[in-house]
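In this section we walk through a basic example: taking a raw amino acid sequence and producing a predicted 3D structure, encoded as discrete structure tokens. The instruction is simple. Fold the sequence below.
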Amino acid sequence: MIKIEVLQMNPWQENTYILSDETRECVIIDPGCFSPQEKKYLAEFISQKQYKPVRLLHTHLHLDHVFGSGFVAETYALKPEAHTDDEFFLPQTIAHASQFGVELDENPPALQGYLSEGDEVTFGNAVLKVLHVPGHSPGGLAFYHPEQNFVIVGDVLFRESIGRADLPMGDFDTLMSSIKDKLLVLDDKVVVYPGHGPHTTIGHERKNNPFLS
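The resulting token sequence is shown next.
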């Protein structure tokens, strides 16, 4: 049984996810911890739960989802993993942050693992299926667990909204195709955990999302 815990981080109120199972192995998805206080909070949370982080995963590599990548990679000796099509964002992170008045000392670490459609992510006794969902960013990924009916989608789909497609290399038509072809084909009961805001379900979005009518 996978336990899903969310820590809200940074000025963008980004959802950092920690997934664990009965072995106490865990994966950290999109560490957005920015300030020293947030990094301490994440580390203390993991320590208090007695978790053993074994994977560092990213749904995409926009700055608010990678602020803590270097800290997590160094603290737990993990290799950052994401889709190759988003890799170009990493060396531009300092420059992008400065456009928002945010100062960074260094860019996030380079990727050391690549994930793509059809891959499986394993930790403990759990297996997540990798879906490629471009549109918000070219390398957008979702992590799906069919047995437990949940999917972690990054900034592709939100409760009664969708992700932006006007950021570099974003594309609205591609985003809509990803949502309809990869997410709306899932069961109505599947719980959707987005990169910002509250969770929802596929069924709720199918009925109530104004962008999907």
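Looking at the output, two observations stand out. The domain at 3-208 is CATH 3.60.15.10 (Metallo-beta-lactamase; Chain A). The chain has one domain: 3-208. In the next section we compare this with other chains.
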